[in-house]
Specification:
mainly alpha, about 100 residues, single chain
Length: about 100
């Protein structure tokens, strides 16, 4: 019996991609407040990949194993909602919106 829910490769890739984007934003924000942290700029992708792998592993371990298909679909739904919100924010920013979601 598995003690974790195995997510599909596409879902794992989406989680890693989301974490890479979040790490990129976090490092960029940190550098804007503390310019001496600019050495982190060249390692954003590596930290993102590392933290993405950790996130995938953690999510697979935290999901309830009683209904693995439903658990995997819930993760995919959350990723889809995040993608829609990010796409809407980008679209609104392109149209000149001052206040984003």
């Amino acid at each position: 019996m598995a003690w974790f829910v195995e997510l599909s490769g596409d879902t794992q890739l989406a989680i890693v991609g989301l974490v890479i984007v979040l790490v990129d934003l976090a490092v960029t924000a940190a550098i804007s407040y503390a310019p001496w942290l600019s050495f982190l700029e060249s390692y954003k992708e590596e930290w993102g990949l590392l933290l993405g792998a950790v996130a995938v592993s953690a999510i697979q371990g935290w999901l309830p194993t009683q209904y693995p298909e439903a658990s995997a679909l819930a993760v995919q739904l959350v990723l889809a909602v995040i993608a829609i919100v990010m796409g809407a924010k980008k679209f609104l920013a392109k149209k000149g919106a001052v206040k984003l979601l």
